[in-house]
Amino acid sequence: MLPTIENCIAQTITTAETNDEKMKRMEWFDRAKLGIFIHWGIYAVDGVSESWSFHNNYLPYDRYMDQSKRFTASKYDPKKWVNLIRESGAQYTVITTKHHDGMALWNTKTSDLNVVKQTPARRDLIAPFVNEVRRQGLKLGLYYSLLDWSNDNYPNKTNTETRYRIKDDPARWEKFVKFNFAQLSELNKNFKPDLYWFDGDWEQSAESWHSKEIADLLRSTNPNVIINSRIQGYGDYATPEQGIPIVRPKDRYWELCMTMNDSWGFQHTDTNFKSPFILLRTFVDCLSMNGNMLMDIGPREDGTIPDEEVAILKEFGRWTSKHKEAIYDTRAGIPNEHFQGYTTLNKEGNILYLYLPYRPNGPVEVKGLMNKVNRIWVVGNGAILNYKIYNKNYWSEVPGNLYIDVPERVLDPSITVIAILLDGPVKLYRGSGQVITCN
Ligand code: GLC
Hints:
Layout: H1 5-15, H2 19-25, H3 27-32, E1 34-38, H4 43-46, H5 52-55, H6 61-66, H7 78-87, E2 92-98, H8 115-118, H9 126-135, E3 139-145, E4 156-158, E5 161-162, H10 170-191, E6 195-199, H11 206-209, H12 211-221, E7 226-227, E8 255-258, H13 276-288, E9 292-297, H14 307-322, E10 330-332, E11 342-346, E12 351-356, E13 364-366, E14 373-378, E15 387-390, E16 401-404, E17 416-422
Bound molecules: alpha-D-glucopyranose.
């Protein structure tokens, strides 16, 4: 049905949600801060780029699909996966149930293109993961590609091969829409996720996908379900990919998705891993701008997780368990003019956290703080730090500069965190100084 003006008004009314309701719905997501993304599929067999390798014609489609015959999941241990994810400090996880190649990882009745029917794994790989995620108390996210380059009723397959155009055969397109709805109903019914992570929306419009109806369908069984932005305008939060935002994103809720090396799925040739330090730094960068980080792992076809990825998750675990108070209950910090580095604040706004991804050569400086400082300590270490205030003149409202001594022995091997307890919610001087009026 084409939207008439009346329809549009009706839609706005039914989707109208107060800010309070949304805040409530987003509460766990806002506090979660760290999530682990999992890209697992037949592409891990030969270690080629997920779906894109055939779409961009690096590899013929049949060769790509041939990997199914060798996708075994023979050492798949969902308990081990979830243990590691939980150990990292992540509060949620998002797994690929179906990538753009159309191969479903759950036992779908909607088509034969699934790992139960097409691969030696011969079982539902999502169900045991979901059970384990629930057992260990993490939040569950399901990645689902709206587009499906393998489906005969989907308009295009590769970037050079088009099956048909929607406007030439709308009935055929509606068949595809029905298929998507059937798959999503299954996921909803079987796994009841807390979050849907859509992808591939860029190929069609909201109207073609029936985005609103998808959101309604998912919310009909779980009104609190969270939906990412990749559904053409009907999502709850933004998903910048790979590039760390430079300025704080305008969206109230956002999540940076990021790979540990350069690939989402497992690739034998990709050894370009970022160090745990660099990834932790990125995580803190997100925290300081009110965002989450969704960090990706790409298990091998047999279900084992590469050592480099295990090591990163473990180092995250060490750092997050030590610095809990400066992670989950924080929000964006103060502008960079006040402190040359990353900062956050606690919910009440009276504790300012400074993150030091370096060894200071002298005292650490904070400018323009109007509050009185009650106490300064090292998070996860407890040591009280000495500080001094210089340049405070009695005749001026410009506050002095705060200098904090950070001795070598309190430094974290990766990122040291300092907490400053203020006499009330943070108050900043944002002016450009004053000239003398008396002396
Ligand atoms: C992209 C890619 C995809 C990847 C995803 C993760 O949009 O299409 O391969 O799964 O981003 O964010």
